[in-house]
Amino acid sequence: MKALHVAALLPFFGICASAQPQFPTAIPQTKFNSGQDVVPSFDGWMRNADGTYTFVFGYLNRNYKEELAIPAGQDNKLEPGPGLDQGQPTYFLPRRHAWVFQVKVPADWGTKELIWSITAHGKTEKAYASLQMEEQILPRLIMSHGNLSPGLDDPNQAPVVRIEPVSEATVGAPVSLSALVTDDGLPKPRILKARAEVAPGKAQTNTAGGRPRSGVSVSWYEYRGPAKVSFEPTEPVKVGTPGEPVNGKAVATARFTEPGTYVLRAVADDGALSTTADVTVTVTR
Fold it and tell me: How many CB atoms lie within 10 A of CB 199?
């Protein structure tokens, strides 16, 4: 018996030959700008010199645009502990953010779990932190954004950042933010070779102009707060000269639309390693 082509059988099943049938298990990817929940994540634990441990958490805001303010409490809590508020973020930026905050637990923690629960848009998600050996991480993993290369013997040290206190802030008025940064000047900038002239009959290589690709920069984002904060400039602020030790200041401006207590975070990045510092701002009418 001659074999039949699959396309010949499609009309028998009521399927147009030009159509692309979907298998029952095929789930199309749908991107939502708003209306989705926030998923906390356990991003590992670290062993401290004093025998205690530190749990590290992050989150995924499933929305591509919506930023959610979820105050610490029944909808944003850590258990067990001294209280529901253990320093977790209360303002959630879109998409994935790893290694966002840390919680220190005692040396006798044992096999217990620390649970972070977030309820948003009527749905509750949880992250379970425990001292599983395969979840242990090193501080340098966080500073290098998940990249340990070139290894622990790398002489580069992460920048040190300190934020000057903010004395007062009111709704709608610009507030100056000053981050004081020091750095060892490593890693040294890499200068890419300028594009050479292409000889007739030769293939052109993908090279860029001679621009330095490292240096220290400071960027800002909102860690806690009841409403959105706008920063100017929106791009990272460069500090010092690439490849040279840094002892300088990065200045930015923040504007608030609602009164309340905010925590703003500065991230100092030398192109390979980064560190953060927080400042608390009380905003009045």
Answer: 8
